[in-house]
Amino acid sequence: WESGALPVVVLTKADLCEAELDERLRDAEAVAIGAEVLPISSINGEGLGTVKGMLTTGKTGALIGSSGVGKSTLINHLLGFERQTIGEVRTGDGRGRHTNTHRELILLEGGGLLVDTPGMRELHLMDLAGSGVEGAFEDIEQLAQNCRFRDCHHRREPGYAVKEALRVGNLDARRLESYEKLQREQAMIERKAARRQAMLEKRSFHA
Question: Where would a tag sit more exposed on the chain, N or C end, judged by fewer CB atoms within 10 A?
Fold first, then answer.
């Protein structure tokens, strides 16, 4: 959110899990709090109109996901014709092969733009992301306020409220894992920024 982008979790191939779709939606919502979760199907057309409505004039979207999740199929449906090559999913591990190898900016019929970024599976934090992580994980930050110690590192300390919420089922383990991963990434960014600042100050002093 801090970047200005609006995250949307698109669950492709919803027709393959109709019997357990509600459960899959709850799972996604549990780890992506605040983001819209939208099931779509290229077979029966479910949700495709909603995606099109998000990409109107003045809007630019980018698809992120592993090979084989249906990005190329979605692009073809948004365009109304088959432009992207679609690859088969391997039966061994359920993953797809990269069928597109170059980045492309695609103009959609509704006036929006779509960035096709082959192989882009995730985004990293911006430099000096500030409160971005805390804002995205406000539920965990609020739980952390109840920790016994003010300098709690949220790992093995007694009275760790976040771990207690995890134990009783009030917090999804995957969401906590994502939070801790981004906290580590943010700490690394801050260390790099501090080193850069120290180098600049050193050069300025010698100048």
Answer: C
The predicted model scores a pTM of 0.60
In order of their start, the domains of the chain are: 8-117 (3.40.50.300), 135-205 (1.10.40.50)
> How would DSSP label each residue in the chain?
-TTS---EEEE--GGGGGGGHHHHHHHHHHHSTTSEEEE--TTT-TTHHHHHHHSBTT-EEE----TTSSHHHHHHHHHTS--S--PPBPTTTSPBPP---S-EEEE-TTB-EEEE-TT----PPPTT-TTHHHHHTHHHHHHHTT-SSTT--SSS-TT-HHHHHHHTTSS-HHHHHHHHHHHHHHHHHHHHHHHHHHHHHHHHHH-
Q: What is the pLDDT of residues 18-72, one digit of tens each?
A: 889 999 898 888 778 778 999 999 889 999 999 999 999 999 998 888 778 888 8
Neighbours of 118 (CB within 10 A): 16
Closest CA to 187 of 141, 143, 136, 129: 129
Q: In what order do the strands lie in the sheet with 60-62?
A: 60-62, 113-116, 104-107
User: Which residues contact residue 28 at a Cβ distance below 8 angstroms, ignoring those fewer than 6 apart?
Assistant: 9, 11, 37
pLDDT by residue (tens digit) across 128-169? 455 567 777 888 888 888 776 665 555 555 557 888 888 888
